[in-house]
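Recall the central idea of this unit: under ordinary conditions, the amino acid sequence of a chain determines the structure it adopts. In this exercise we apply that idea directly, starting from the sequence alone.
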Amino acid sequence: MAESPSKTPPRSTLTKAALASRIHKRVGLTKKESGDLVDDVLDLMQEALLEGEKIKIACFGNFLIREKGARRGRNPHTGESMVLSRRRVLRFKPSQRLRDEMNAVPLEDAPGDE
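Accordingly, the structure predicted from this sequence is:
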């Protein structure tokens, strides 16, 4: 009997609290100061995006709000045709450096890869 393909273990998630903890360990701020710093940075980023500004973080990437127009869509359950309204979506475009670093890490063998 052939071996079943191994599944990739679930990756952990970097939460806001974990980010604050890492800042605390690296920079030496108190845990409260680190948490406040993370909150302030995220608040500033949110305000900038809501005001229509693009956020560009060197060697990391760009965040921007993109407006999508109304379009015709379909309800996947009923198949009924409908119009999807205009909306704004948050877009993140990684920098070339981040993409290069991500792709420098070898992928685990996936089923079907030869």
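The chain has a mean pLDDT of 88.
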